[in-house]
């Protein structure tokens, strides 16, 4: 706990005395891990800054063009800056993409046609993708309803990743049109893939099927590692602007990045054939999107510090954590097994009541569109559902794992988790 002592009649800054030894101990133990996060973050920042410089971003790019949005220079330069920052040939960054799910859906619908096989190389996809693919009760707009086939192989054994070895898996890859990889664990207990594991999967799939489109769900992974999936063999990837690449300030949108011909097709799927990437009003958000990208690597660094702090504190109290605080990370998510619905609820309520927005709201488990089980969600965030801001959530199912993520300001995670750990 932090006590603030104020001298009586001065307005000078309060002297803050650290009285939570658990935090001090954790920060000491985490120092070398954080050094490695910082060195990755520094490298990413350099690449992001270079993308601004090389693309000659100027104030003229902050203006928007109304109506059709033809010749919106800001939109065009934003696509170029994102492409370079994400190590992709081309990018489509649009506020017309409602969320990460929508960006992924556009990418799938833009590149697959009836008769094609979409093969997940990473087992079950993220909850909201089940409906996009058509794995839940038939939505007439799902991929399966449109005649696209879906299959999956699972490279996780005892929660460890291994490039699949079986002849059956190899045959599936040979037959597929798209090999689909989900980088982050999402709401599952399997580990998040590191970039070197994604590289190994890409090489394996490419060697078996040179023509397959290798696509990555990059949600939550952006800027956590030195390289992005498109730098290690992926053809296409997509993500949300209210997660990592929006730096906490972009109010909506998604991106798709990868090979130009594929990204162009996605643009036609998002708008219309003939319009593609040439149209689309940007609602005066070009500056915010560019500035969000500029801030993103720093926000991701603070989120990683908060995540590992939570991991360390809860491990000390005997809870199982994934990944370990000392492990190499592929995303910003920290999973803590709380083992009871009551603790999961209490954890989320504490995060909510220490949030800048709606601290007085009490989160309860509820059904959320796109998700199967009931979910408890704490997100006292400036931007609705923005999980680069300090937030926690978890589905009401065994082992009652809480998924802790975000924290735009490390001090916020530190303060909130420091208080929280005293009640667990
Ligand atoms: C967040 C996320 C998505 C997309 O979710 P939205 O809430 O629609 O942005 C997809 N896949 C993974 C792994 C995610 O974490």
Q: Could you characterize the architecture of this molecule?
A:
The protein has 424 residues and is of the alpha/beta class. Helices cover 37% and strands 15% of the residues. It contains ten helices and 16 strands. A hairpin with a 2-residue loop joins strand 6 and strand 7. The N terminus is likely disordered. It binds pyridoxal-5'-phosphate. Pyridoxal-5'-phosphate (PLP) binds next to helix 3.
List the main descriptive attributes of the protein structure presented here:
alpha/beta, single chain, 424 residues
**Rg from C-alpha positions?**
22 Å
Number of strands: 16
Bound molecules: pyridoxal-5'-phosphate
Query: Largest sheet, if any?
Result: 7 strands, mixed
Supply the number of helical segments: 10
| Strand order within the widest beta sheet | 3-11-10-9-8-4-5
The end-to-end distance, rounded to whole angstroms, is 14 Å
Give the overall form: globular
Low-confidence stretches: 1-12
Q: Would you list the SSEs in sequence order as H and E?
A: EEHHEHEHEEEHEHEEEHHEEHEEEH
Mean pLDDT: 94
Portion in helices: 25-40%
What percentage of amino acids are in beta strands?
Answer: 15-25%
Structural class: alpha/beta
Describe how the helices and strands are arranged.
Layout: E1 2-5, E2 15-18, H1 21-54, H2 73-85, E3 90-94, H3 100-111, E4 117-120, H4 127-133, E5 149-152, E6 156-157, E7 160-161, H5 167-175, E8 178-182, H6 195-208, E9 213-217, E10 236-240, E11 254-258, H7 260-270, H8 286-316, E12 321-322, E13 334-337, H9 341-353, E14 375-378, E15 391-395, E16 401-405, H10 410-420
Bound molecules: pyridoxal-5'-phosphate.
């Amino acid at each position: 706990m932090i006590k603030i002592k104020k001298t009586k009649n001065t307005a000078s800054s309060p002297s803050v005395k650290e009285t939570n030894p658990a935090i001090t101990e954790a920060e000491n133990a985490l120092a070398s891990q954080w050094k490695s996060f910082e060195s990755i973050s520094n490298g990413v920042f350099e690449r992001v800054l270079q993308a601004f410089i090389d693309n000659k971003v100027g104030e003229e790019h902050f203006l928007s063009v109304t109506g059709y949005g033809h010749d919106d220079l800001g939109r065009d330069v934003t696509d170029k800056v994102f492409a370079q920052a994400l190590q992709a040939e081309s990018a489509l960054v649009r506020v017309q993409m409602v969320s990460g799910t929508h960006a992924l859906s556009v990418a799938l619908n833009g590149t697959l046609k009836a008769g094609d096989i979409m093969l997940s190389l990473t087992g079950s996809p993220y909850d909201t993708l089940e409906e996009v693919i058509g794995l839940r009760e038939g939505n007439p707009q799902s991929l399966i309803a449109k005649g696209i086939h879906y299959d999956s192989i699972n490279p996780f054994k005892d929660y460890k990743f291994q490039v699949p070895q079986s002849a059956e898996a190899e045959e599936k890859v040979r037959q597929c049109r798209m090999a689909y990889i989900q980088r982050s664990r999402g709401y599952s207990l399997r580990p998040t893939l590191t970039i070197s594991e994604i590289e190994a999967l890409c090489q394996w799939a490419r060697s078996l099927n040179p023509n397959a489109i290798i696509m990555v769900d990059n949600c939550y992974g952006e800027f956590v590692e030195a390289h992005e999936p498109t730098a290690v063999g992926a053809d296409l990837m997509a993500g949300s602007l209210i997660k990592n690449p929006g730096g906490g300030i972009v109010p909506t949108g998604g991106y798709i990045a990868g090979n130009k011909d594929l990204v162009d097709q996605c643009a036609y799927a998002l708008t219309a054939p003939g319009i593609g990437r040439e149209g689309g009003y940007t609602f005066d958000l070009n500056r915010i999107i560019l500035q969000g990208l500029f801030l993103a690597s720093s926000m991701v660094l603070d989120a990683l510090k908060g995540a590992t702090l939570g991991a360390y504190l809860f491990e000390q109290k005997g809870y199982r954590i994934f990944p370990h605080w000392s492990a190499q990370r592929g995303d910003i998510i920290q999973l803590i097994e709380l083992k009871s619905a009551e603790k999961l609820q209490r954890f989320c309520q504490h995060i909510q009541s220490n949030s800048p927005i709606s601290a007085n709201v009490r989160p309860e488990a509820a059904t959320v569109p796109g998700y199967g089980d009931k979910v408890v969600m704490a997100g006292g965030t400036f931007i609705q559902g923005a999980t680069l801001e300090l937030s926690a959530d978890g589905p009401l199912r065994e082992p009652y794992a809480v998924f802790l993520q975000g924290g735009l300001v490390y001090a916020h995670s530190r303060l909130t988790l420091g208080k929280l750990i005293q009640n667990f």
